[in-house]
Write a structure and sequence with these properties.
The complex is a heterodimer. Chain A is of the alpha+beta class. Chain A has helices at 5-10, 12-27, 31-43, 49-62, 66-75, 125-140, 145-157, 163-173, 177-194, 197-207, 213-223, 229-278, 286-303, 308-333, 342-363, 391-413, 415-425, 427-432, 437-460, 469-484, 489-510, 512-529; strands spanning 79-82, 88-95, 98-103, 109-112, 118-120, 380-384, 387-390. Chain A has a 5-stranded antiparallel beta sheet with strand order 4-3-2-1-5. In chain A, strands 6-7 form a two-stranded antiparallel ribbon. In chain A, strand 3 and strand 4 (109-112) form a beta hairpin. Chain A starts with a helix and ends in a 15-residue tail after the last helix. Chain B is mainly α. Chain B is globular. The longest helix of chain B is centred in the first third of the chain and has 27 residues, at 51-77. Classes of the chains: A alpha+beta, B mainly alpha. Chains A and B meet through helix 15, helix 20 and helix 22 of A and helix 7, helix 8, helix 13 and helix 15 of B.
């Protein structure tokens, strides 16, 4: 009955009964039903294949968890009856090197068995077909919606005619929209391969919007068919429209990669946008502030090994404090003495960066340190077959936005931010208004360094945490700030996103390294056109 | 010690006078004679200088020439280039390409024309840009031309657009970083990650022989001496005065009618050529050139040699290069942990307490009345540099 779709359609009453009994099974497994299950299993050992087929059907309808294992064993020829133990149906399993018989109903070990003790339960081709459909059906009727979707996808990937009635039946009683959609797709794929001409065309229409790679295969096969010109043409058209959609999604994916790279660049550069952009300090030790932030993450994770999931929430403020304090110390001890001498500042801070690198090498080790990624950051969110977004990139983008907004808020909405802007715009005037410029300088530098430290926490999730981490980002950071225009946070944002997106869009054509080289060359040329960056500050003060 | 006396005499003779110049040239040429002679002594002699040391000091002399090149643009024209390592490396690669072609069929794969790495990458024929490098004269021309043309093009665009100060420093760094990435690629045809190595002959002489090592040392010393004279000539000429004017007050020089960008391009190109020559002499003495030479940190290290020695003093640059590199050789062997601490501290302390470097300190101590080096007038240092 399962093999012949027409017969199924012809007997809606039985179908309804089947579905009903199945639902009942889901709700309750009564003892009497369990007895039925045992009887059905026993029937598998019957001489007649017709009875066996009945038994298979009953097992499918039983809704019993054991049915799946029994039926797959039957399909694989690994189901036996035990001649010495009242012909109980058993699996054969090796335990301690000796074959043991395991009761399929109770899972009880019936002891070692000899080669001739067991008799294989045979199947014929007809029964094999029924079994295949039955196994597919078992999964389609699973209690777990995800398993049902997976079963529907399996049918879609490999549409065999036997599955059609099962899918039709499953659709009728399916309550879950997502599962139903998957089932509809499976049904369309089945009709496309097995239906009549009209059904096939309808199926193409049904499948044409899909973003599932398996659907593309099914359609591809249909498009390749010589026999039915109309169908082939329709499938071709559907494929073409899917190709179009796919390229749109590919574009979106590249854009997503680009934005996430831009977010990384922004996190790396935004601290520099404060120290270099706002204060005018050429901070070559900026990369090492990122590194310190990453190492702080490592230390925090070492300190709380049992709460790795939450470690990042501790690491962010910790990194801000650590690198902020280091920044303030550097500003007070060295940079303070070098204001107004940008090139000297560059050299001195470069010295500091060497110092910090070696310090990290001596304290930890020259090797990379393992920083764990929390579970909630791994994995990806699949929008559809053509577009999936990895969680770590998503979180980096969100985190980057938060950091940027927080920084803007500090600069625009707090007294400290007001004083910072005052000091950078006119130091002498600010000083005569009673602002302690030295203190503001230190705090500004501390803020920039602290933000760099937070950037380092994010980088620790993306790259190796080692003494050279900072070196890898220092050139990029400067490029972003200079490109965006010094002294302008929005410029840094636009600069980072532009460079990130440009990089990712060039990569497919040129490869990653050449894309990076081209971006560098572009910036060098861009600086010629606009020596003060994308969003230059205007006015006389700039020229001094 | 001061150089200001000689500036008034101008021209070529002026370039050769001045106590610092005489002492410097004397020391360089003295070394050029003495070291090879001591190396040629028979084994066991107490004064024998081992060949290893000859090559080591030959390498330092190349660094000194490189420092001279940086001092010319930074000390005299206020252009802080963080990309001079790129010109050095390009000169080195030009020399390395010649040396690769000299290997001929003695490579591991024994191919008569293609270097080993190309055979390994399954290349069938020499890329066009390798043509001519089997000719020594052509290769030497390229040693000067390639860095020179790059510097000219780069400088032409940058200086004409009035990219100055920190911005210029950062784009020079971007330039060397881009070249670093490019030369790391196998497709570039320069040996990728491994660079060019396994050299055998130079002009038919075995590179490993003592005689060639001595010859290279002498060549390096002569190149340094000639480079010094050239820089002296430039800096003491009228052109040199304009350069100093540009360094100290760029806008004012422009308002007075000088085409500032022309002066800058000239001096930047000359400096790049000197750096390229230094690189070409460096490669046969160390036996390898790889993309690591393009690393931005290398270029910054050159700047600290000059800063320590005293920018604006040509002999200061030479002294700084020698002092830092000798210290580096010592520290990296004796206390490898300490070296970066030392170098870092050197950067910080030099900029904080020795803004004019050792040479500046020297002139202050010896001539408190003069107090300034080449063109460092009483003007405050802030502003245009």
């Amino acid at each position: 009955m399962l093999r012949i779709p027409v017969s199924l359609r012809a007997r809606p009453v039985i179908l309804a009964f089947l579905a009903l009994s199945f639902l009942l099974d889901l709700l309750s497994a009564t003892p009497s039903r369990a007895d039925d299950f045992e009887t059905s299993v026993a029937k598998l050992n019957d001489q007649s294949f017709t009875v066996k087929e009945e038994a298979v059907l009953e097992l499918v309808q039983s809704g019993d968890d054991r049915a799946l294992a029994i039926l797959s064993a039957l399909q694989d020829g690994e189901l036996f009856s035990h001649k010495k133990q009242n012909n109980v149906i058993v699996f054969s399993q090796e335990i301690d090197g000796a074959p043991h018989a395991i009761d399929v109903l109770t899972a009880a070990d019936l002891g070692e068995h000899g080669k001739r003790d067991l008799k294989k339960i045979t199947i014929n081709n007809k029964l094999r077909g029924a079994l295949k459909a039955a196994l597919g059906a078992l999964r389609l009727y699973s209690k777990d919606p995800d398993t049902r979707i997976a079963a529907a996808k399996a049918v879609l990937a490999n549409p065999s005619p036997e599955a059609l009635p099962l899918v039709v039946e499953a659709i009728e009683k399916e309550q879950d929209d997502a599962v139903r959609e998957a089932l509809d797709m499976a049904q369309a794929a089945l009709l496309l391969t097995n239906g009549d001409a009209e059904e096939r065309l309808a199926a193409v229409g049904m499948l044409s919007g899909s973003m599932d790679p398996d659907v593309w295969q099914v359609l591809g096969r249909a498009a390749g068919q010589e026999a039915d010109a109309d169908l082939a043409a329709a499938a071709q058209a559907a494929l073409a429209s899917i190709e179009n959609q796919k390229s749109v999604y590919n574009l979106l994916e590249t854009l997503f990669f680009g934005v996430s790279l831009g977010a990384v660049l922004l996190l790396a550069a935004v601290g520099l946008a404060i120290t270099f952009g706002v204060m005018g300090v050429i901070n070559m030790a900026h990369g090492e502030m990122l590194m310190l932030g990453a190492y702080t993450t490592f230390v925090v994770q070492q300190l709380m090994p049992n709460a790795i999931e939450y470690s990042l929430f501790v690491a962010v403020p910790a990194a801000f404090i650590v690198t902020g304090l280091v920044g303030i110390a550097i500003e007070r001890s060295i940079i303070r003495l070098l204001y107004g001498r940008p090139l000297e500042t560059l050299l001195a801070t470069f010295g500091i960066s060497l110092f910090l690198q070696q310090a990290v090498r001596s304290i930890f080790s020259p090797l990379n340190q393992p920083v764990t990624t929390p579970d909630w950051m791994s994995g990806f969110y699949a929008v559809n077959g053509a577009l999936s977004l990895t969680y770590n990139r998503l979180y980096i983008i969100v985190f980057c936005i938060l950091v940027f907004l927080a920084l803007l808020a500090v600069l625009k909405r707090t007294p400290l931010g007001l004083q910072m802007r005052a000091v950078t715009q006119n130091r002498a005037m600010a000083s005569s208004m009673g602002i302690r410029t030295g203190r503001v300088d230190a705090l500004t530098f501390g803020l920039g360094s602290g933000i760099a430290g937070i950037g380092g926490v994010a980088l620790s999730q993306l790259t190796n945490v080692g003494p050279n981490l900072g070196q890898a980002y220092i050139v990029d950071s400067f490029m972003v700030v200079v490109f965006g225009g010094v002294g302008n946070l929005w410029g840094t944002l636009v600069g980072a996103l532009t460079l990130g997106v440009a990089n990712k869009f060039m990569e497919p054509w040129t490869g990653a390294v050449v894309a990076k080289i081209l971006v560098l060359v572009f910036i060098i040329l861009f600086i010629q056109r606009r020596p003060r960056g994308l969003f230059a500050l205007k006015g006389r003060a700039v020229e001094s | 010690m001061t150089t200001s006396l000689s500036t008034s005499r101008g021209f070529l003779f002026g370039a050769m006078t001045g106590r610092a110049t005489v002492i410097t040239l004397g020391l360089i040429l003295g070394a050029a004679v003495l070291v090879p002679v001591l190396n040629a002594l028979p084994d066991g002699s107490p004064f024998k200088v081992p060949t290893y040391t000859v090559s080591l000091f030959g390498k330092y002399l190349c660094y000194a020439l490189l420092a001279l090149a940086v001092d010319l643009v930074w000390g005299y024209c206020g252009i802080l280039s963080l990309g001079h390592g790129a010109f050095f490396a390009l000169g080195g690669y030009a020399m390395g390409m010649y040396l690769m072609r000299q290997i001929g069929d003695r490579g591991v794969y024994g191919h008569p024309v293609l270097p080993d790495f190309m055979v390994f990458l399954n290349w069938k024929e020499l890329p066009w840009y390798w043509y001519g490098f089997d000719n020594f004269a052509f290769a030497m021309l390229m040693v000067a031309l390639v860095p020179g043309i790059l510097a000219f093009a780069f400088g032409w665009f940058a200086f004409r657009s009035r990219v100055t100060g920190v911005y210029l420093s950062i784009i020079t760094q971007a330039m060397t970083y881009a070249l670093l990435l490019a030369f790391f690629r196998n497709d570039m045809g320069f040996g990728g990650n491994n660079g060019l190595t396994d050299f055998r002959d130079l002009l038919g002489f075995d590179l490993r022989s003592d005689g060639v090592r001595r010859g290279l040392f002498i060549a390096s010393a002569l190149a340094l001496a000639l480079g010094y004279i050239a820089c002296r000539f430039v800096t003491t000429s009228r052109l040199g005065k304009v350069l100093i004017a540009v360094r100290d007050a760029e806008s004012r020089s422009r308002f007075m009618g000088y085409r500032v960008e022309h002066y800058k391009v000239f001096v930047f190109t000359l400096s790049a050529v000197l750096a390229g020559i230094a690189g070409a002499l460096y490669v046969p003495q160390v036996g390898i050139i790889n993309p690591g030479e393009f690393a931005p940190i290398n270029s910054i290290e050159i700047v600290i040699w000059v800063a320590l020695g005293g920018r604006g003093y040509l002999f200061g640059a030479i002294f700084g290069a020698l002092a830092v590199n000798i210290a580096k050789s010592y520290f990296t062997v004796a206390f490898p942990e300490i070296w970066l601490f030392f170098l870092g501290a050197l950067f910080v302390l030099t900029t904080l307490f020795l803004p004019k470097g050792c040479a500046g300190l020297l002139s202050i101590l010896k001539f408190p009345g003069l107090g300034t080096g080449m063109g460092f007038a009483r003007k405050k240092e802030a502003g245009n540099d």
